[in-house]
């Protein structure tokens, strides 16, 4: 896809854009950078490495889509493309951080640390979707796309 430096730039820009509310990009960038600084202060780890690990742990590999066949709706597991997978992982990380109360940058820091250790809400969401896909794998023959 892209070399590692360009991919890192793309992912951070995309994450900041998803974090942004009401067009306040500077504020979103500040929240993101403060959370990376909190990670460095708490764990003595590189913030970007933790961010990429959290993103890798929270992105799903499959999703389920509803397909109507013969009057019944089936949940059909569909493998995800890399771009969609990363996008869902980012959205889940941001949603998990927003659910917590208090400082946005501190919440994002905590969420990223949890996800980098394979814990937290976004990793649970990924696991639950994978379980649903596993239970409905017998319906993959309904997939035509």
TrEMBL record:
Keywords: Mitochondrion, Ribonucleoprotein, Ribosomal protein, RNA-binding, rRNA-binding. GO terms for cellular component: small ribosomal subunit. One of its GO terms (molecular function) is rRNA binding. Residues 6-137 form the Small ribosomal subunit protein uS7 domain. The keyword Transport does not apply. It comes from the Eukaryota. One of its GO terms (biological process) is translation. PANTHER family: RIBOSOMAL PROTEIN S7. Belongs to the universal ribosomal protein uS7 family. This is 30S ribosomal protein S7. The lineage of its organism: Eukaryota, Sar, Stramenopiles, Ochrophyta, Eustigmatophyceae.
């Amino acid at each position: 896809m892209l070399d590692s430096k360009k991919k890192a730039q793309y992912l951070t820009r995309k994450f900041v854009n998803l974090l942004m509310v009401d067009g306040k990009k500077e504020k979103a960038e500040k929240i993101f950078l403060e959370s990376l600084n909190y990670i460095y202060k708490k764990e003595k780890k590189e913030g970007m490495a933790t961010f990429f690990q959290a993103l890798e742990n929270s992105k799903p590999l499959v999703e389920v889509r509803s397909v109507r066949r013969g009057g019944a709706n089936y949940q059909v597991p569909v493998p995800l493309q890399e771009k969609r997978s990363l996008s869902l992982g980012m959205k889940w990380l941001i949603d998990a951080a927003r659910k917590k109360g208090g400082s946005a940058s501190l919440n994002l820091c905590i969420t990223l640390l949890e996800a980098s250790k394979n814990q937290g809400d976004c990793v649970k969401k990924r696991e639950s979707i994978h379980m649903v896909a596993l239970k409905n794998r017998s319906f993959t023959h309904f997939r035509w796309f």
